Amino acid sequence: MNKKMQPKTLPGFMELLPNEQILFNKMRETIQKSYEKYGFLPLDTPIIEDANVLLAKAGGETEKQIYRFEKGENDLALRFDLTVPLAKYVTEYYDKLNFPFKRYQIGKVYRGEKPQRGRYREFYQCDVDIIGDGKLSIINDGEIPSIIYNTFKSLGFDDFTICINNRKILNGLFNSLELEEDASEILRIIDKIDKIGIDNVKNELLKSVEKEKVETIIKFICIDGDNDSKIKSLEELNIDNEVFQEGLDELKQVIKFVKIFGVPENNFKIDLTIARGLDYYTGTVYETFLDKYRNLGSVCSGGRYDNLTEYYTDRKMPGVGISIGLSRLFFQLVDNNIISAEKECISDVLVVSMTDEYEACAEVARKLRDNNLNVQINIEEQKLGKKFRYADNINVKYVIIMGEDEVKNNVVTLKNMITGEQNTINIEEAVKLIKE
Amino acid sequence: MNKKMQPKTLPGFMELLPNEQILFNKMRETIQKSYEKYGFLPLDTPIIEDANVLLAKAGGETEKQIYRFEKGENDLALRFDLTVPLAKYVTEYYDKLNFPFKRYQIGKVYRGEKPQRGRYREFYQCDVDIIGDGKLSIINDGEIPSIIYNTFKSLGFDDFTICINNRKILNGLFNSLELEEDASEILRIIDKIDKIGIDNVKNELLKSVEKEKVETIIKFICIDGDNDSKIKSLEELNIDNEVFQEGLDELKQVIKFVKIFGVPENNFKIDLTIARGLDYYTGTVYETFLDKYRNLGSVCSGGRYDNLTEYYTDRKMPGVGISIGLSRLFFQLVDNNIISAEKECISDVLVVSMTDEYEACAEVARKLRDNNLNVQINIEEQKLGKKFRYADNINVKYVIIMGEDEVKNNVVTLKNMITGEQNTINIEEAVKLIKE
């Protein structure tokens, strides 16, 4: 006999057991249905793209992490997000698409990061984006939070907060203080506020920024209260800067429409500290936190970008969108016992034979399936005890047992595996009980 | 301004327009639901695997077509089917799985073939397999055709034929004629029967095979009639060979159970000429043809294999399964005008404003979504004509128009885009009409 090769899944690649996979798929389908409820069209772009197309914009970390290889004469790469393929898609099929173009895509993306607990090299992203042709109404930015809201409600969450900000407010502020060049360093310091406290942030800022300007920044990041009072405080800052005022106007519009689109007050708030990286988003930005598990970080983020396709075309195509990193989210939820796959099962009922009533089993399975039930059948030559252990292991709620008597009397014995209750009844009654 | 990079999807990679994608996804979901109806568990193994794991068994054409590359110290490859990953999976997680292990997997696989019309380098396979631990009842082989039947019925087909054979019958026949070594050459000649006719097949065979043996082969391939008479003719051949008789017994069992599992007589038949390659399947084999489009080739194939995992473990794990090559099937069905994506739409209704009734539109959209409708909203500053062109283009059946009067009177104007009918009604009535 040959020496056997020990098979092993690569580190950093999520591979689930069946019951976990059932739960994962349920979440994925819930997200999909929610995206479709908002009229987003499905896309499924290739995982492999021309490396030069994919990397037109990329650089730095992305370029290092990318899976890139040659096949024949082709320089290929695996997509590392769903945004660049979208930019490619809207440029390539521009003439055949209808704008504003709304699409969702749920698919795997690839980043050769150092594998860590809960960080994957292959992972699902679930994206929606709205792309305008030339321009795109700010009201779209107000609809996005209701998509996040509907999605996380559908996933079974109640306590979460969608944090909304507008990058123009921050940019305008720094602009008015003539601190544009220091913006990223200042934001880095501000980001530490939860860890080191307001006084230390202030002291750190004073090292490189004039006192008066630090006062304004501190005043800005201390803005508190409900959404209306935050808006009021922003207005009262009296910042004489066009970009700032534009951002404030947009934020006001967005907040107004978030309410109209039906997001309850306790599920969203203005958060003036979120910035989401400095080089990509240009207006509205979103982050979403589970209130009881804030430590998980943002579970759904996104924002407005001025020009999706600038590396491919001169045509201006502004967009707004969000992304859920499903693989990571799933890992975190399971890891923190927020969800559990332990009792998941795909089948409504398992049909087994007492001894060798295989034909009767097959007939019963057919009838149950004709009634739209998910039915498994065990027709192996196994002891009944083994078959019941199998039923236990796959978490199936009902087992139908076919023995000599059942065949003779044209009935079935239906056992509820949770209550232990057992009834010998005709098949129509069994269907009714199982469907309840 | 930078020079723009012209984005281009790679040749051989299917990328659909949104309406085509809607139809494709519907088919994929139909297949998934059908597989779940038979109690198969979902799996989603990585697309990237360790090249040595993936290629433990492969060779020849497969090895040439595979996408293989290095990243850091890792020798990686993209899966070229879903069967090898299944073999890996059941070996790796053996202790955590329940046998017989039934799983389905629907996912993309990769083969760097020369791109041709309708042949893809990245394509979906939709597989179900039942894996036994040590042994697996032949009755499972009788259930598989009912999965094929249910799947293609659910896809909207009535006229298709599942062809069933058993490799042991062919092997036993050649065995008894002491022609094992010529088997593949003989099968190649037999395969040409549709093209060159029975007499030419006979003449070709006579070149290398004794007359008496050719007579038996010709008698065998001329076996005709319904399934029962085919079985009878096979029995009457009186082939004194254990493998042949085993194959015949298995085929009889399979045919018996195919009927019990509910496949109508006109949707399956014994076809003694199908063999499905010589090195993989060991017993039952299946091919499926659309009766009116036989030229498309088999749309769903599979069979029984003795030992899925022989390259990974000494443990014997026989299995039986089938696969649908969905990307190719979809292409063929569209290309032959058997299905059309022209009228596909994801949204139930589009909400547009006459002039600038954006808030009213948002409110109406929310109410419609609360009633579980898929709703798109157009809140761009566009002329109404442009919005209706958009509605036409996305094939949406209903448009709700909100103007000054509608807002004032707390009603909506609902337009049926197919009939042109237009009603000004309250929102509850609109929901009812749209849902009809």
Task: Explain what the structure shows.
- The structure is a homodimer of 436-residue chains.
- By secondary structure, chain A is of the alpha+beta class.
- Chain A folds into 2 domains: 282 residues, 2-Layer Sandwich (BirA Bifunctional Protein, domain 2); 87 residues, Rossmann fold.
- Chain A has 16 helices and 16 strands.
- Chain A has an 8-stranded mixed sheet with strand order 1-5-6-11-10-9-7-8.
- In chain A, helix 8 packs antiparallel against helix 9 and helix 10 runs antiparallel to helix 11.
- The longest helix of chain A has 20 residues.
- Chain A starts with 17 loop residues before the first helix and ends with a helix.
- Chains A and B meet through helix 1, strand 1, strand 2, strand 3 and helix 4 of A and helix 1, strand 1, strand 2, strand 3 and helix 4 of B.
